[in-house]
């Protein structure tokens, strides 16, 4: 049976019709009752017959055909299914030992895995299939569908007849179904949005139970295998445990949601119920969770905290004492079931570690998602669903003979990315993101070959026959931008030549690989002649290649968006052009590039290639509007009145709708199918003639459109034509196939009206993106995003058999010549490899870099040669005598150039000085005035330091004196702030004082308790051990007392500080209110309001900071100046030493010393420098001497330096006179000594010169470094000064608001103080009110006890009960004291009048029936007759006490009412003060806003560099930068990072909030449990105290009882007596032993006598027996008459006895009646009866006693 039904339905409206129709034609002629007609008007429910079946042909869905069309119903015939939706949950079930079933889109596939034959069942509603399950007996299976109000169809197996149809279980679809263990019930889980459970009596098609909808999606539901009243469901972030509970209206499903506790919530795919009610579930991270109740008992992991599986884990069975689990890591593991069931955590962790006992690795690229056992229940063979596209057969016996895992079937995993058919044979090639390319023979329904690569495939195309006549070339694009050319061949034909035997029927071999793109390749296309090959990608590029034996690149173009499809113009067009469809709504048409043209060498980009652009503009809203206008006009013509409504608005989607597919119609015209908002139409478009506009600014509208029926939300994803273009095949987004018959040559699609549609792929995610016709137009092949691939035949099965196509196989191309000998092409395996363009650019850059390196090397070589020549010239110049040696100036080319430049510069300077003379004079005068003003306020003089060898100089800063008034004012303000009272601190202090007062009162109460009585003096001296025991007991009691007191104090403090149940932090409330009021405004903080005082503090702090920085720099400059002074003196000394050395050397050995520096006038800080230095030294000698640099002043150092230099210059006569005269000959020794002396002196000369040079260089370097630091500091100080200026402006502005703000602040402080005082009074009032309420409750309790005492005094059945009650409750006027009378004269009348109406408004006039009073009314002031006087007096006393209590109660109520009124008054005052305070605060906030607005309007100077300005208009910086925004980049980055941090914090806070809610719920639950447990423990404690002590005792008092000395004394006395008694017992034991010995002797003698006596008795017994035998024989004849006579006498005596007893009973009755008439009491039934009267002697007893013994 190939196909059970080929008649399929298409749309949901057909599904609704099918669902509404009753199956009147069900087999067995029995109609099916609906779900609502289970009970009709009290009649018994109708039971469905067991043998009832539905008609499958009537129940299943059918294809949709346009009405009144001539399209045949069986246009397509399902041929085979090549795919498997491996990503669907639980998509693998087993029917028998050889048949598997799984869902494929709208089909249910029954697969015989031994013969690989397929059978199909279509969905009945046409909306898809949601879930399947199999009956435990394998006799039925359930198919739960999807769509609008889907049904659950129960099929009988193996007949496959529809047995039951379950309706009304959900609205949109089912996600899971399951039978119970005995198969009588079925449970279903609905999909989103109304996730609920339904329990069915499926045989009667009745709903048994139904749960309420849930918010979380349900993945799986199942019955408990051990108890059908329990169910379990799991899904998104939850697992829920259900049970069937009885209610007064019937049974219902009660669910208990999972409580993960400290475990992270997870999605749960699988679980297993344990026999004891626990459940083991999996997690997303690979560990197992053991659930006990609805909480996680333990999380199970492997040793060292490793996960049980890598990825998602699912437990699936319990086998042979082990729990079996599968994981997404492709491993099956078995765990010890007992260890899991009894898992307990002891170390405080939430995880339990254990190792698996068995393990099987199915594969490394395997992801197991579900398993199903083979048919025998005890079989170890399982079938597994692999989410990566496979079905496995597993032997889970875990024995040495177990078979290895076997892959039964292999499929594509995930959406099909590419599909194409051979142009020559019945071959189909596909590729997906699972990195595989597969080739199928769809004629024989089998897969031929598979090739795997390192990246997923994204598109595929079969090369045309024009360039590959044998049809063996496949072109495949991949994710990494690589395009591979694959050659298909038949290896069997290759083995005939080589002699090797291969089992493969086809094989793919890589022919060429190239990488034109950096992103996934989305489209490939061959030019109509096959000479050019084009590829498109997501990276917005289209690359062109020349075809041939090897594909060579031509170039690429850039397009406005990611490429969706490529379409070359057909042969009917005159020009060869490429139509490029982009995903973002752009369409580009380019001319075919010329392969022979000269291409640029630096890049492959074809910038000059002609192209045209089209940007789609939505017109759907306009079409809808025009249709509505036409409809309304038609109604008006028909004079039909309709309510006027607004026309549909015009709408342009943003972002624009994506392009799904398209194709050429005519030259320059094309059809487009749009997705998104613009779906539902086919748009006919053409390129505009005006192509000069920017493509981004284009807006092109279609010039024509065709509506696509029922496709407003279902766009066409793919289109293809048959070879004769008479059929247009469309793949829809909803998984439908549509076929439109067309007229020949209809390029405008005017005949596209009627269509045939069938639902084949999944309606939710099975988007049909690929549809193709075979080369002979006999087959149609489809592939969708659900991973399914189907083949259809356009001919019925009979015609195919007539053509013998089912017996043929597709022809696989033969291998080319020397294919096996040819080496395989190099593949591109690195995903990060460069594409063709980048490789070319890299090659060009490498070439340019090598050329530049060569040029640089050549230039450097030439420079080196010139430099070498110049150095040679310099050396030769140095060797020349000095008089002919060239000077450096002479080496210049021509000095006239320099002179001319200097003259021009001087001339311009003179002209500028003439122009700026007046301004210079004005500025110089202003400068002098400013200097004079500044010099008066400077702390010190300006110090300048000049470099020695350069013109660099550095000077100190001008420092002004700091005003003392500012410091004093800041100190006064600080004191004022410290003196201000703190509101919050005082409030806290008051609260703490109250808590302390409560503690003190508690301590005082404890101190007033009477002390514990001291034990009496001991009369017996106890031992050390007893004394130590008493001491320890006393210490223990003292510790217990201290501990109890401390605990009571802590509890008192905790209860004192405990907030109310509805307490809310006022700060939080205030913050929320501020946030709501100020949302969208600038951020403000109330306690940081801006005022002039704070700004002054800020200004002073900034000025102090500037001064500190300047002072620090001045100190460093002064130090440098002092070091120069010291250096000058030191260099002078060194120069003197050098001169002395050179005097002893010949002239040719002298070296020129460096020029000695001097202290310039600008470097001296003294004003009186023109005076003589000696005078200055004398004046300074009296002053303090500086310690630095040898404690020598600057002038002293200068004077000493001048003197040392003068002395050095003066000739040394002694040295010159001692010189050797010329012409005197020296000896050899003297010459040797002279040479030695010259060498030593040369060394000293070199050392001095080196020290001098290094000192000068080091000083200059220090000055230059300090100068750079000062320049950087100058920039910072200028910024600070600008900030200081801004602060001054702000202070001036803030002073304008001080008066208004000060008034409001004073009012606010007054309101705060008043509010505090009122709150204190209110707290006192509340305390007094609570105290009065306690007094009132006590008085009311006393009044109730007094009434109870009165009722007790009355007793039972008192005749005067009503009278005495009236006396007791009567209100009388009582005499008052004088003080009370004076104080209550005004209130007397009101109290007397209210006393009659206030409390007991009861009519006490009662008529009593009395014989003595004759029915007259009783006087309550006199005791009536018959009433006991004592009882009456007691009643009067109780009435007096009641009236006293009532008076006290009235007084307390009056005081309480007064306190209430006072409380209400204070509450009103608090509200009034609070309102006024809020108004003042709002006023302050308004002022603060106004201040902030004014401050924001101030201009702030910010220096910027040009590279910091990014405000560019038309490529240049505008002159007006008022519209620009100044922003700190670091702050901007920080704010952006802060945004991300806040998002993360927000998620974290949400998670914390979620956890807090969970924790709160858990704590609330635990609180209830603990309260219940406390009650139980209190009852148990009371019971134990009653058992142990006989009454309830105070355990705390019991703990504080010290050790009793009297008890220890008694114990000691007892111990002494026990010792004495033990000694006495030992003595008695000796006596007893002696007596026992004597007794033993006597006993032995008596035993002997008894033995003798027993023998004599035996002899006597024998004799008596003999004697009695003889007497019986003799007396038997005479005994009978005497016995009859004795019986008659006994009867007479008994009769007389009965008469006598009856007379006595009558006498007793008379006596009882007499006693009862005299008022005596008769004992009731509950009293103890008197002992019975001793019976008199009976004659029968006498007779028996008088009988002689028989023996």
Distinctive features:
5-stranded antiparallel beta sheet, 1751 residues, 41% helix, 29 helices
How many strands in all? 60
Number of helices: 29
The helix content, as a percent range, equals: 40-55%
Can you tell me the residue ranges where pLDDT is under 50 for at least 5 consecutive residues?
1-43, 974-1019, 1081-1087, 1167-1223, 1377-1382, 1384-1416, 1718-1751
Return the structural class.
alpha+beta
User: Beta-sheet strand percentage?
Assistant: 15-25%
Distance between the termini: 106 Å
What would you report as the Rg, rounded to the nearest angstrom?
59 Å
Strand order of the largest sheet: 1-55-54-53-52
* Mean pLDDT metric: 80
Q: Major sheet, described briefly? A: 5 strands, antiparallel
Shape: extended
Write the layout of secondary structure elements.
Elements lengths: L11 H9 L35 H4 L4 E2 L11 E5 L11 E4 L2 E6 L2 E6 L4 E6 L6 E6 L5 E6 L6 E5 L4 E6 L7 E6 L6 E5 L6 E5 L4 E5 L7 E7 L2 E9 L2 E10 L2 E8 L13 E3 L5 E3 L6 E5 L2 E7 L11 E7 L2 E6 L3 E6 H5 L9 E3 L4 E4 L6 E6 L7 E6 L3 E6 L10 E5 L5 E6 L5 E6 L3 E6 L4 E7 L4 E6 L10 E6 L4 E7 L1 H8 L8 E8 L6 E6 L5 E6 L3 E6 L5 E7 L4 E6 L8 E6 L3 E6 L19 E5 L4 H18 L21 E8 L2 E6 L6 E6 L17 E4 L8 E6 L5 E6 L3 E6 L14 E4 L8 E6 L5 E6 L4 E5 L3 H6 L33 H44 L15 H21 L1 H20 L7 E3 L6 E3 L8 H16 L3 H26 L15 H34 L8 H12 L14 H52 L29 H9 L6 H4 L2 H16 L3 H5 L10 H68 L2 H57 ...
Parallel strand pairs: 22-26
Antiparallel strand pairs: 1-55, 2-58, 3-4, 4-5, 5-6, 7-8, 8-9, 9-10, 11-12, 12-13, 13-14, 15-16, 16-17, 17-18, 19-20, 20-21, 21-22, 23-24, 24-25, 25-27, 28-29, 29-30, 30-31, 32-33, 33-34, 34-35, 36-37, 37-38, 38-39, 40-41, 41-42, 42-43, 44-45, 45-46, 46-47, 48-49, 49-50, 50-51, 52-53, 53-54, ...
